[in-house]
Amino acid sequence: MLCGTMRTPAAVIFDCDGVLVDSEILAIEVEIVLLAECGLVYEPDVYHHRFLGLNDTAYHAALDLDCRERTGGPLPMDFLRRARDERWAACQTRLTEVAGCGAAVAALSLPKAVASSSGAAFLREKLRLTGLLPAFDPHVYSADLVARAKPHPDIFLHAAGALAVEPDGCLAIEDSVNGVTSARAAGMTVWAFAGGGHMDGAAADRLIEAGAHRLVGHWDEAAALFAAFS
Predict the structure, then answer these.
(1) 10 Å Cβ neighbour count for 158?
(2) Degrees (nearest 5) of the Cα angle 121, 124, 125?
(3) Same domain assignment for residues 70 and 80
(4) Would you say residue 2 has pLDDT above 50?
(5) Beta strand 11-14 with 140-142: parallel, antiparallel or unpaired?
């Protein structure tokens, strides 16, 4: 799906989770189980829509509000730590790149960066585990570096500045409504990426509704589009 056309971008800025590495399906699996233990039951598609793309601070605040409304008490103080530990354990043994990502990124000759809501250390480790870190290093940027996380534009603006390109010359690739909103607010062209293991048709439709300019179904499709930038 294409909403208009775009000139060759000056740079491409990638979200990480669910775009480069297939971590979102692992995180959703872990987090839904832990939240049910706290009395918070979510359908996966609802959970995906509300929370994907948030950093830990915003995620905790939203869950705490739900917990107070549904159970009458706050989210357990150790929830984020437990969730991080469980996500990390799952990633250590099961994390892979999203199929075709490495080849597509390697073929892209334009300047590129990662702009992610993940914590800085965990972000780099996920890229290292999947062999993708050398393709982006040192341009790997976490929301830890900025005042406001997605859906605010700060992390995308930070990445564009580090690459020394104007935001309106950047192409952003995202898989969450929060991410699409963030990149659009930064003035970037946005491709919605639907190739992660956690994605379905409804989730992809929401990305277009959020303002993504094109829907890309998998990395082979993205690679063919990248070839036109050469």
Answers:
(1) 20
(2) 85
(3) yes
(4) no
(5) unpaired
Mean local confidence (pLDDT), 204-208: 93
Q: Are 158 and 106 in contact (CB under 8 A)?
A: no
Domain count, the chain: 2
With a cut of 70, say whether residue 4 has pLDDT above it.
Answer: no
**What span, in angstroms and rounded, lies between the C-alpha atoms of 200 and 116?**
21
Using 50, 70 and 90 to split pLDDT, how confident is the model at 1?
very low
Q: Give residue-wise pLDDT tens across range 8-64.
A: 999 999 999 999 999 988 989 999 999 999 999 999 888 988 888 787 888 999 999
Find the domain containing 45 and state its range: 25-94
Q: Which amino acid is at 13?
A: I
